[in-house]
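Chapter review: from sequence to fold.
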Amino acid sequence: MYIGPFYFDTKEIFLFLTSIILVLAMYFNWPLWWFDKRSLFTLVVLILFTKGVLPSIHNEAFFILTIVAIFLTLYLSIFQVVLFYFISLLLFRLMKVI
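The token string follows.
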């Protein structure tokens, strides 16, 4: 989908909608049963930034990395999840998986 000079894939549109819904959940104080809203929002922003910086990412491996990072927010602090995310992303780039 083209919006001006920018091309947005369906995954980025889904991430934009997710971030908007998370902001609305934080503003209206809607409960998310198991997840912390701030950590999810931080992770969504990091994923959007990563997709913007590295547009040639292999989507299947990146999808598995993001799903694992999202479910790790259930058990770990956001610092540990962000550290895992960036180390895994770096190792995937070095091994040419992504």
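Two observations follow directly from the output. Residues 23 and 41 are 8 Å apart (CA to CA). The chain is about 70% helix and 5% strand.
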